[in-house]
Amino acid sequence: MTDRQRTDLTPPEPESYGGPVEYLSQDDLRVPTHQLVTPDGEYDESSIPDLDDEAFRDLYRWMVSDRVFNRRMVKIQRRGELGTFGTTRGQEASIVGSAYTIAPDDWMYLGRAWTAMFMRGVPMRDMILFWRGIEESQQSFAEHNSQVAIAVGAHLPLAAGTAWGMDIRDADEITMAYLGDGATSTGVVHEGLNLAGALEVPALFFCQNNQYAISMPFSEQTGANTIAQKALGYGIDAIRVDGQDVLAVYDAVMEARERVKRGEPVFIESVTYRLDAHTTSDDPHRYRTEEEEQAWEENDPIERYRSFLESEGLWDDIDHDAIVEEINDEFDAALAAANDFAERDVSEMFAHVYEELPPELRRQLTEFEQFLEEHPEAYDYIDQRPKG
Amino acid sequence: MNATIVEAVNDALHTEMAADERVLVFGEDVARSGGVFRATEGLMEEFGNDRVVDTPLSEIAIIGSATGLAMYGYRPVAEIQFSGFLPPAFDQLVSNASRMRWRTRGEFTASMVARMPYGAGVRALEHHSESMEGSYAHIPGLKVVIPSTPSDTKGLLTAAIRDPDPVLFMEPKRIYRSFREEVPEGDYEVPLGEAAVREEGEDVTVVSWGSMMPMAEEAAANVEADVELVDLRTISPMDSETVVESVKKTGRAVVVHEGPRTGGVGSDVVARINDEALMYLEAPVERVTGFDTQVPMLSMEDFYFPNPPRIAAGIERALDV
Ligand SMILES: Cc1ncc(C[n+]2csc(CCOP(=O)(O)OP(=O)(O)O)c2C)c(N)n1
Ligand SMILES: [Mg+2]
User: Fold this and answer.
1) Pick the CATH number of A31-339 from 3.40.50.970, 3.40.50.150, 2.60.40.420, 1.10.8.60
2) Looking at the structure, do residues B112 and B209 belong to the same domain, yes or no?
3) How confident is the model at residue A1 (pLDDT cuts 50, 70, 90)?
4) Which residue ranges does UniProt annotate as crossing the membrane (chain A) (predicted)?
């Protein structure tokens, strides 16, 4: 915990007496949105982050990788090779710009940001396994100090806790928690934020406001004008950033990291858009118009960044088609490896419930194994689906 | 009307909303998109956005505000998108809804329904497959209802909406659309707190509910015994009488449920049989249940819940064969 001026407990002295009752209103807040490259590709050279050419190209490559990965995942889901899948199309700049800042020792809790895992070194195969419902995928995430929160918002107190530990140990790493706009409607998110603000722990909360929680548009989720302003209630400073501008996102998160490392949590709202359905089982045309989608299609983060690269003369060194081909090859290999994943033994179901299997659970396992041996007809009802 | 379970939910909601202006339907994605399982489809179009409301993503606020609305005289039917997301709102159930009548000595009541799909087998991610009726049955003041057929779904949901106490209505989502049957049109109520004898038999009583019922029926058809099949329907308060009477006749019993064995409702069924029919028993009561483990992710989830061969083996153990 850093030293903070603790609130003085003596009663406040009003600056002046009399006058009308005054409201404290969100309408008086100025909530700027950080942007470096405009949708038309204009920018001010002096405010562009100081990255080398390779890093600029890397950002592009990761965004394309995200897009190709999503496309391929939807394709195999349609073929019946995944349970379901939720894409991140439209959010590439928001995801890549933020995750590009993450250091190997940082901890990361994910919402809709699959490529952030790949950027940490999680093999693509394991994300395929995750959407196929194979537990080992989550082990792989954990080996990279990461996990995916399926119970929306439930990870914020975890993030506050790991960050608290980092603070006690005076560690160099930080905790980064992704969350969605919808998550900010849950109580648990606010309780986690409040604790992080109260204890001043090194946590960076990155909220991707992709405008929807399944069918619920952001405008109907809350009476607040922005998500960023909510952090102020917990004494946490916030940044609102244009999530379609990869350089602005990178810039904002890098700036925030410096603060977080000094022991002050930061909350970032990244304004973006979920271009595809919530998951492959959702039909967005029940709740939003094609015109709206079209407008955001035209605010494509990859296109915007490409125009920047062109202006900088970096585009000539980039072979877009070759990148796509490389990612497709990587996906093919990942899929083949995922398909090679062997069916597991039934004891897997009893593994990791506790460190040591209690006697009653051991009995349940032994009985079940014996039952399966004696009753092979049970397999008429059991379909292990390692291939989705 | 020929309907599936999920269509019967929808029909009950339509019918009760038309009959009683106090009935409100709300939850995540229930209005505009008609619910992720389409259970609330068409309600917003028919009854308007004041009575059918998409709420912000908060199970706590959904259950808590339903309780407040009920205290104020409305009849809320709140949807929890998946039962695996009820736990944050457990506090509202335990600390408010279930004890409002008690706390206010009957001045206020929480006449509300929380509907939620439960159970494994729909190939979803973590937290989408639980069967935790045992935990909810443990809450005094809360009723827990689980239908297993389309007509019971309509009748029990109607009764739940009209019930003066809070009802947790757990819908067996694996069989939401797996079969159809004739469902009475219009006003149709099946009383809460009454089990149904689905098949009469002399040799052994099988007690089950919800998504396990079709499995239990199949198992009963495959064993060489005359099985009496009891569908509990209301988990709490439980109709022990029907179960006990059946066991007094057959002298043997098996309880089948999908949720974990320890602290499961099956333990309570066994205890009630022991309390009231111990001397009639010719064999220990068998339990065929889910395991005391997390429900596996989708690749291995079929291993988790009882299937007809497992249930048949349980019946055979109860028969000493
Ligand atoms: C506690 C909880 N309630 C409901 C759900 C079902 N659900 C899954 S994602 C989602 C919407 C999440 O919206 P948001 O936080 O904006 O994330 P996004 O999907 O847009 O990335 C809902 C309601 C859930 N997973 N967890
Ligand atoms: Mg969202």
Assistant:
1) 3.40.50.970
2) no
3) very low
4) none
**pLDDT greater than 80 at residue A7:** no
Range(s) of the domain holding residue B261: 196-320
Q: What is the pLDDT of residues A149-199, one digit of tens each?
A: 999 999 999 999 999 999 999 999 999 999 999 999 999 999 999 999 999
Tokens of B278: 């111990």
Q: So what's the pLDDT on residue B194?
A: 98
Question: What's the token pair of residue A72?
Answer: 């391929």
Measure the CA–CA gap between B303 and A346, rounded to whole angstroms: 7
Say what the pTM is.
0.96
Q: Is residue B265 part of a domain?
A: yes
Which helix (H) or strand (E) segment is A91 a member of? none
Pocket of ligand 1 (CB under 6 A): A 111-112, 150-152, 180-183, 210, 212-214, 274, 278; B 28, 57, 59, 81, 85
The tally of domains found in chain B comes to: 2
Closest CA to B125 of A179, A350, A83: A83
* Per-residue pLDDT tens over the stretch A41-73: 999 999 999 999 999 999 999 999 999 999 999
CA-wise closest residue to B278 among B254, B297, B316, B251: B251
The CATH number of whichever domain residue B176 belongs to comes to 3.40.50.970
Distance B74 CA to ligand 2 centre (A): 31
Give the whole-angstrom CA distance, residue A82 versus residue A385.
Answer: 9
Q: Which residue among A189, A214, A288 has the greatest number of ligand 1 atoms within 8 angstroms of its CB, and so is best to mutate? A: A214
